[in-house]
Amino acid sequence: MSTQTRDPKGERHRLTVLFSDLVGSTALGRDVESEHLSELLSQLRQIWHRAVAKHGGHIIRTQGDGALAIFGHPQSGEDDGRRAAEAALDIHQWVGQLRHDGVSPALMPLRMHSGIHAGTVLLTQGDIESGRYDLIGDVVNTAAHLSRHAGPDQILASLDALGPHANFFELGAHLPSGGISGMPQARLVLRRSTATRRFEATSRRGLTPFIGRNEVFGFLTRFLSEAPLPAQRCTVVVGGPGLGKTRLLEEVLEHVGTERFRLLRGSCESYVGAEVLQPFLQMLRSALGIGPDASIVEAKETARTALEPWAAQLGPHAESILALASAGADARGGRITVDGVVGDLLAFFTGLSAQGPLVLVIDDWQWSDDASRQLLQALLELPNGPRVILASRPREDGTEWISGAPHLLLEPFQGPETDLAVRRWVPQADPFLVARIHAYAGGVPLFIEELCHSIAANDPASFEARSKQGWIATLVASRLARLPSDEAKVVRAAAVIGNTVPHGLLVSACGSEPDPAIVRALADADFLYADPGGDVLRFKHGITRDAVYDSIGLHERQALHKRIEATLLARSEQADREDAMEALAYHSRGAGHWESAARYAERAGDKAMAAFALDRASAQYQVAMQALDRVPDRSREQSLRWCLLANKLGMANIFDPLSLTDDTSVFERAVAIASSLGETAAMASAYEWLGYMCYGFGRFRDAVTHTRTALELARKLGDHRLIAQIEATLGQILAASCQYDEAIALIDAAISTKQQRTRRHGAISFGAAYALSCKGGILADRGDFDGAHACFREAMALVEGSTHPVVNSVRNWIAVALNWQGRWREAEQLAVEGARIAENTRSLLLLADCRAASGFARWSAAADADGLLQLRNAAEWMERRNFQFYTSVQYSWLVEAATAEGDVETARRYAAHILRRAREGERLGEAAACRSLARLAARRQDLSLSERWLQRAEASAGWRGSLRDAALNLALHGELLAGQGQGEAARQTIIEAAEKLKAIGMHWHAEQAIRLFIGTPVVYANDQLGRAQPCAV
Question: Is the dihedral of CA 367, 372, 377, 379 positive or negative?
Fold first, then answer.
């Protein structure tokens, strides 16, 4: 099988880099004789080499008083970051102990500062200038920057490098990623912690709730609880890295308890410093009561005391066991055989088993050494030996660890289990974020947890990109490095193809049919598995695929992309297949064929838009724009194409701005490019989309400014279609900023023009439908609910039968109007249906809006606590993204509910958001928030403040011409008068408010106003939509 050979100029490696530098070297050079300084630096270099070699690293460069070391070469290890931190601690300690007669005591002790970072670098053979190896990539610079930022005697390590091994150390304060430009999140490594096991270390930051695993949990419980010794005394829990083997054992042991047996625990490590027979020596010391920090003398004395009662039973083995407990397997000398050290430990555990039931639990058995496996086999052959539970990853050769023993396989989480796990760390995670985490982590609990920590500390929009630089990528690289070369070549070729690997493309990439045995081996190694639905392979996790792809050298990667692109083009020419556009865009881009990539990506985006797959369309348009940016000497036509792509990107994004970051730089750049080209039409469209995206992000003042500029340009062109389109856009923006009269005039004019065009061309006008829904929102806010519902009916008629996302936008406005009107059941039913559609179409904004609307309706109708929680969660989705678009509506509902429930902190927090939005011109929720603040002030008997808040609510209603808010303000005025003991004035005010509310169709609110004050009975009249509504008599 032929495959692309690796780049002879260097190979990519996943490495952890330690940069360590002497503090105060300038003063030393000035005050110390050169010969003495040379001797001191020689001692310093010896320390660097000794400490780094001790922990399995390599010094690749020393220069003066600084050293650069790498960990993970020639083979990456998942504990590379831990080993680098251990080496740094040793260096700092040993350098601090240096003394020299030629150096003034005032300059002592010497102190270092160090930085540690991990990532992918290009590693080439070095020379006299660059050192043993030359490292190319940002990882080295980052480690050096961290070192420079660290103070004297400080070690600053990125969390990407340490990963879950961070808690083997005591850590100092965070270095936020924004603390130094371009720096990753980092912590000070202060000293080693007391943690001795990996689970103990990782659990220090908190544990995800124990989820699922019921069948395996039950089996292990029975295995440990059976009174008679089981016929099979060993059970193996098998699962890939991160599937929760250790956590399962912790939960089982806590559940079963240890009253009926003696429990000893050990673990194996891949760590370079791990001792021979590690798990059994750990159990030996634990049984004898030797602490992990005991000195050799203390350990020997403790062991001697503990062994004294049964020295006769151990016979000649006693002294050997004493030496093993205090100094390890090397202390006995000689070969490690059944007759030697293994025999000594066998005698000890045999004697221990004779004293009563014994259970041995060993974690990470895949790292066990030959002597440990030899001892375990001997223990299992004893007639009355201990019961044993092993936790292990699958064997790479696919065979069983212990022949005949039950092997309990742990599977990844399913979707609902991932949802529970994610909400432990990111409580306000929306369903789409949970789904992304599940897909990218492949349901692996540890990966899910790592991604959640990354999300909690950073923007959730880009955790996939960040995870390629994190600890998980090092884990994947370590697994990849252990593959035989023929298997590694296939998995690299598969990674270039993508997460889903069609068999035909894999054959093309490899140059021939891959050996079926290799494919099976990759499945056993947890890299690729066969999809039961077709002739394709899939990567187990998106994380795995991305980490493998990142490890492939540029030239090999480009060659593979070119080969696959040629295969796809040959197929497309035969059948003119549109379904290959996405793949062609991806592989053309990977091959460096930028013009082709732009063309294919745009076609793929257009195809996705036609199917209303807006997220995919957005991604493809961005790929097309990025590809055009790489075209050398781009032509005028290509620049105009870039501007058109920006417009298309806006259309794809505008329906779900909540899923985006508030970044309009692409659209600002489109304005700049169009202006530089002097293309008035392109400028008008660019300004329109810049304005529309500002509108989507809630920046209404900017939106109005940019859209008015677009309208001026369109009028200069005399393009009536474009003028009508921009007028509709401006009308929608003015509606959001509560400039209602101009908004209605613009919307009516635009709709009239659009309707004439629609009659001529027979096309569905989605823009007109949305504009009508915005007009309906204005009328509903002003209390003209009949007019509002007429607009909504007209809007729905325009898009009848369509699945375009604008349909759900119209429905959302209807639900808002129904909630304002107090028609709770109808509002809830419509919003629940809207939420279902939003989930299916992956629209986060509409999902949040609909869940907020249905939650508020449920709470308003029946004080439903779950409804309030649903409303709160939707508001938090918006708040944590700093989202602004029309949020005063949803936030005002939460303020009202929180005030009624006595949750003053929440009410005030979201009221503050609403008042800030009012300064932006969005006043829809202003009066409601002010009414709630007036109620809170009245409860504190601050009548003056209460009156001021009510006056602001009245001003807001008057500014907007909102009869709805004016009537609710009047009802509150009556309520406040009643609270002040002005009964008659309160009665007259509330009756007047109830009449005004009833007149505009807000019958529920009218009834509530009367009921709250005098408890007047009600009768029911039918409203214009046929629903019985309450009105006061």
Answer: negative
Q: Are 438 and 425 in contact (CB under 8 A)?
A: no
Domains of the chain: total: 5
183 and 100 in a common domain: yes
| Residue 925 is assigned to a structural domain of this protein | yes
Q: Report the DSSP pairing between strands 234-238 and 358-363.
A: unpaired
Whether residue 109 is preceded by a cis peptide bond, meaning omega within 30 degrees of 0, is: yes
Domain containing 452: what range? 415-475
Amino acid at 602: E
- CB 103 within 8 Å of CB 28: yes
Q: What are phi and psi of 567, to 5 degrees?
A: -65, -45
Cα 648 from Cα 745, distance rounded (Å): 27
Kindly state whether residue 130 falls inside one of the protein's structural domains.
Answer: yes
330-349 average pLDDT score? 68
The string of DSSP letters for 40-107 reads HHHHHHHHHHHHHHHTT-EEEEEETTEEEEEES-SS--TTHHHHHHHHHHHHHHHHHT---TTS-GGG
- What is the token pair recorded at 656? 């779900």
pLDDT in the model for residue 543: 81
Closest to 159 (Cα-Cα) out of 148, 146, 144: 146
Q: What is the 3-state secondary structure (H, E, C) of 748-768?
A: HHHHHHHHHHHHHHCCCCHHH
From the centroid of its chain, how far is CA 365?
A: 31
Q: Give the gyration radius of the chain's Cα atoms.
A: 35
Comparing C-alpha atoms, which of 258, 279, 451, 449 is closest to residue 357?
258
pLDDT tens column, 771-813:
999 999 999 999 999 999 999 999 999 888 787 888 889 999 9
Q: What are 63's two structure tokens?
A: 């220069």
pTM across the whole model: 0.78
Distance separating the N- and C-terminal Cα atoms of the chain: 89
CATH code of the domain covering residue 31:
3.30.70.1230
d(CA 92, CA 85): 11
Q: Backbone phi, then psi, for 394, in 5-degree steps?
A: -60, 150
What type of residue sits at position 870?
Q
Mean of pLDDT values over 678-695: 96
Q: Which residue has the tokens 């831990």?
A: 82
Same domain, 715 and 741: yes
What 3-state DSSP class applies to 1030?
Answer: strand
Q: Give the DSSP letter string of 298-312.
A: HHHHHHHHHHGGGHH
**Residue 661 scores a pLDDT above 50:** yes
Same domain, residue pair 318 and 222: yes
DSSP structure class, residue 679:
-
Residue type, 319: E
SS3 at position 549: helix
Q: Output the six-digit token pair for 139.
A: 């990882």
Strand partners, 389: 235, 361
Distance CA 835, CA 853 (A): 10
From 364, 382, 409, the end of a domain falls on 409
Structure tokens at 479: 């697994």
